[in-house]
Design goal:
GO molecular function, one term: manganese ion transmembrane transporter activity
Mean pLDDT: 81
Radius of gyration: 17 Å
Pfam family, one: Mntp
Keywords: Cell membrane, Ion transport, Manganese, Membrane, Transmembrane, Transmembrane helix, Transport
Protein name: Putative manganese efflux pump MntP
Subcellular location: Cell membrane
Number of domains: 1
Low-confidence stretches: 94-101
Structural class: mainly alpha
Helix content: over 70%
Shape: elongated
Oligomer: single chain
Length: about 190
C-alpha cells in the first residue's frame, strides 16, 4: 500500500468522527479552538489505537488466509465504505435537546469509540497487505485529530448537512482504497 493511499485511508477513516464532531460543535455554545483541539486529540488517540488492535487480531489470522488476503481487505473496505455511504444517505436524526449543552468527557470518549470501530476493522484488513501499521495508525490519528478539531469549530455554522456528505465521501474513498488494494494484488 503506497503513501497516497494511506493518506486517503486516514482521511476516509476520519469522516465519521468529523460528522460526529460537527454535531458536537453544533451542540456546544461557541466552542473555542482549545476546546475543539482537546476533543480532536481525544478522538485522534482513540482512532489511532483501534487499527492497531485490529491489525494484531488480523496478524494472527494471516497464516491461514494469505492466498485470500487482498480479497478480505477489499471486502472489509467495501462493506465499511458501503455502510458509511448508507448512513450518510440516511434520514437525519433530530436532536432531543435544541439548546446548547456541555459535552462530558465520558460521552465524548464513547462517541470516539463508536466512530472508531470501523478503524479496527480496517486494521484487520491492513494485516493482510504490505503496510506499516504504525505509520497507518499515526496517520489515521492525525487526520482524525485535524478533522474533529475542524468539525467542532464549524459545527455551529454548518450543522449536520456537511457531516452526512462527509460520510458519503469517506465511504466512496474507502471503497476506492479497497479497489486499489485488489488491483495491486491481482496485477502482481
Amino acid at each position: 500500500m503506497n503513501f497516497p493511499s494511506l493518506i486517503l485511508l486516514a482521511f476516509a477513516m476520519s469522516t465519521d468522527a468529523f460528522a460526529a464532531a460537527i454535531g458536537k460543535g453544533a451542540a456546544m455554545q461557541k466552542p473555542r479552538l482549545l476546546q475543539a483541539l482537546r476533543i480532536g486529540l481525544l478522538f485522534g488517540v482513540i482512532e489511532a489505537i483501534t487499527p492497531l488492535i485490529g491489525w494484531f487480531a488480523g496478524s494472527v489470522a494471516t497464516q491461514w488466509v494469505s492466498e485470500w488476503d487482498h480479497w478480505i481487505a477489499f471486502t472489509l473496505l467495501l462493506v465499511l465504505g458501503g455502510r458509511m455511504i448508507r448512513e450518510g444517505m440516511g434520514k437525519e436524526e433530530e436532536e432531543a435537546s435544541p439548546e446548547p449543552q456541555k459535552q462530558s468527557l465520558l460521552m465524548l470518549a464513547l462517541t470516539a469509540v463508536a466512530t472508531s470501530i470501523d478503524a479496527m476493522a480496517v486494521g484487520v484488513g491492513l494485516a493482510f497487505v504490505d503496510v506499516s501499521i504504525l505509520e497507518a495508525s499515526l496517520l489515521i490519528g492525525l487526520a482524525t485529530t485535524l478533522m474533529v478539531t475542524i468539525g467542532v469549530m464549524v459545527g455551529r455554522m454548518l450543522g449536520s448537512v456537511v457531516g452526512k456528505r462527509a460520510e458519503i465521501i469517506g465511504g466512496v474513498v474507502l471503497i476506492g482504497v479497497g479497489a486499489v488494494i485488489l488491483y495491486e494484488h491481482l496485477g502482481a
